[in-house]
Description:
Blueprint: H1 21-32, H2 36-46, E1 51-52, H3 56-60, H4 64-72, E2 78-81, E3 86-89, H5 90-106, H6 114-120, H7 126-139, E4 142-145, E5 148-151, H8 159-174, H9 181-188, H10 192-204, E6 208-212, E7 215-218, H11 219-236, H12 241-248, H13 252-262, E8 268-271, E9 274-277
Antiparallel strand pairs: 1-3, 2-3, 4-5, 6-7, 8-9
Helix pairs in contact: 1-2, 5-7, 6-7, 8-10
Amino acid sequence: MSGRTIAGGRVLNPINDPIKKRLKLPLLKALYAKDFTNAFALLSQIHKKGFGLISAYQRFGLSHEDALNIVKSIPKDLFVDEKGLVVYPLSALDTLESIIKEIYTKNSYALLSATSVSIKLIWASPGLAQEVFNRLESQGFVEKKDGVYVKSGIKIEDVGSHVENRIYAILKESHEAPDAPYNIYDQLDIDRKTGDSALKRLTASKKVVRLAHNLFVTTEALTSMMTRLREIIKNEGYVDVKNAKSHFGLTRKYLIAYLDYLDQFDDIIKDGMARKLK
C-alpha cells in the first residue's frame, strides 16, 4: 500500500569485505554503534594487505582527516600510509619485505623503486613500499643509486648505461617482434621511469626506432624489415597485411606498424591497404 513501510533496514557495511564469521558480527556491531576505532581495528585484521580510507566519507560518513585520526589512535600495531590513505597490519611490511628480497635473490641486477613495486603489486602502496626499502637499506640489503635501489655488493658504475644495454639486448634478441617496454621492464625488474629514460636515449642515438605506441625495434631489425617488404612488392607487385603475414607470420599489430613506416619513403604509394612502388 502506498505510503507504508512494510520492512526497513540500515546498511552498515556497503563493501563486501572478505570477513570470517567470528569477525563479521563484531564489525557490524561496531559500525552500528559508530565505534569506528574498533571497526577500523577489526578491518585491519580482515584486510591483511591493507584497507583504504579513500572512500571514508561514502562508507563511514567520515572525512579523510577524521578517518586518519581514528586509525592513528588505535593502540594496535598498524602501518598507516597517510598520503595513500591505506592502512596495513604490520604483517604486510614483513610480507612485502620477503617478496622484494626474493626478487633481488632471483635477479641480482634488479633496479626497483617504491613506485615500481607498487605498480607490480597493486595492494602495496608507494608509502608501504618505501617503508620496506628503508628497512632493507638499514639492513644493508640494498643501497640507493640514481633514484633506484640496487642490491648491496652489485657493482653498477652507471645505472643509465647499464639499463640501456640490457634493454637493447632484449630488443635485439626479439628481432622484429619485441614486447612492449613495460613488459621488458618487468622482465628485467627495473623501475619504469629508469627504463623510459634509457629507451629515450636509445631512440635519440638512433639505435632504436619507435614504430608505434609501445612498439620499439632496433634500427637493424627495422632496416631488415623494410628491405624484405620491398622484395615482396617487387615480386608480387604490392604488399599488404595479408601477403606480408604469409611471409613473416607476425601479428597485425606489428605488420600494420611496419607498413605505416614504409609509407614514409618517397618511392612508396599507398593504394587502399596495399603499398606499391611508384
